UniProtKB/TrEMBL annotation:
The Auxiliary Activity family 9 catalytic domain, residue ranges: 21-221
Protein task: Lytic polysaccharide monooxygenase (LMPO) that depolymerizes crystalline and amorphous polysaccharides via the oxidation of scissile alpha- or beta-(1-4)-glycosidic bonds, yielding C1 and/or C4 oxidation products. Catalysis by LPMOs requires the reduction of the active-site copper from Cu(II) to Cu(I) by a reducing agent and H(2)O(2) or O(2) as a cosubstrate.
Gene3D superfamilies: 2.70.50.70
Entry EC number(s): 1.14.99.56
Name the record gives this protein: AA9 family lytic polysaccharide monooxygenase
Class in the EC hierarchy, top level: oxidoreductase
PANTHER family named in the record: ENDO-BETA-1,4-GLUCANASE D (PTHR33353:SF2), PUTATIVE (AFU_ORTHOLOGUE AFUA_1G12560)-RELATED (PTHR33353)
Gene Ontology cellular component terms for the protein in this record: extracellular region
Domains as described in the record: Has a modular structure: an endo-beta-1,4-glucanase catalytic module at the N-terminus, a linker rich in serines and threonines, and a C-terminal carbohydrate-binding module (CBM).
Keyword Secreted part of the UniProt annotation: yes
Catalytic activity reported: [(1->4)-beta-D-glucosyl]n+m + reduced acceptor + O2 = 4-dehydro-beta-D-glucosyl-[(1->4)-beta-D-glucosyl]n-1 + [(1->4)-beta-D-glucosyl]m + acceptor + H2O
Length: 251
């Protein structure tokens, strides 16, 4: 497949900010990494790794916009993005561009949405989404601005496609939320969508679904008001539970 030149040009530049700003660009199948953007829709942002925020935005994109589904302009690249075949029950991963590592405090989630026509390359993600994976606090006594978060230092999100997932083509959306600026309504969202074809005989139905955008809003204290430098772990947990991030995952 072809690659947009700006991403190649960015590779050297990303060596410096890779741990501060990042984006999911690879799928890991059976322990083998794909090429960048082989199965993940590529954003058209000039600086692909920049976050989405409600204030101090980049490219005027906010979590209230339709491109919050899979990142700015990514649907324009859907048709030339390959579809990975996975079986229900398989464990796969979405990996950061240029071997980056997460160095912002905050939770990580993975959502899926089934293409209603059966062709994920034609699907914008405007249907229902369900959550299959999440990581929040791992050490409530730790530093809430760093390693208290399970995702801190991760280079990929590894997760299982639920055994009961019905066969079909899906978007799989990995998302990390940096909360270091939440006290100023500057929570930072880093996310991408992979295109997969799920095989098997699953017949489950998720009990909780969401729409993107709409899943989050800036009246939620987790994104607008939480202060990781002064608030307690108990406050963080309460604020998480007041958002869909606190909902259970479908298995």
């Amino acid at each position: 497949m072809k690659y947009i030149p700006t991403v190649v040009a960015l590779t050297a530049a990303l060596a410096r900010p890779a741990t501060a700003h990042y984006i999911f660009s690879k799928l890991v199948l059976n322990g083998k990494e794909s090429q960048d953007w082989q199965y993940i829709r590529q954003t058209t942002r000039s600086e692909c790794y920049m976050p989405t925020k409600w204030t101090s935005t980049y490219d005027n994109l906010t979590p209230s916009d339709s491109d919050f589904r899979c990142n700015l302009g990514s649907f324009s690249n859907a048709a030339k993005t390959d579809v990975a075949e996975v079986a229900a029950g398989d464990t796969i991963a979405m990996k950061l561009f240029y071997d980056g590592k997460i160095a912002h405090p905050g939770p990580g989630q993975v959502y899926m949405s089934k293409a209603p026509t059966g062709n994920v390359q034609e699907y914008e993600g405007d249907g229902e989404w369900f959550k299959i994976w999440e990581k929040t606090l791992c050490d409530e006594s730790g530093d809430l601005t760093k390693g208290a978060w399970c995702t801190y230092g991760m280079s990929e999100f590894e997760f299982q496609i639920p055994q009961t997932t019905p066969a079909g083509e899906y978007l799989v959306r990995a998302e990390h939320v940096g909360l270091h600026g939440a006290q100023n309504n500057e929570a930072e969202f880093f996310y991408s969508c992979a295109q997969v074809k799920v095989t098997g005989s699953g017949s489950g139905t998720p009990s909780q679904t969401y729409h993107i955008p709409g899943i989050y809003n800036d009246s939620m204290t987790l994104f607008n008001g939480l202060n990781l430098w002064t608030d307690s772990a108990g406050k963080v947990k309460t604020d998480i539970m007041d958002t869909p991030i606190g909902d259970g995952v479908w298995k």
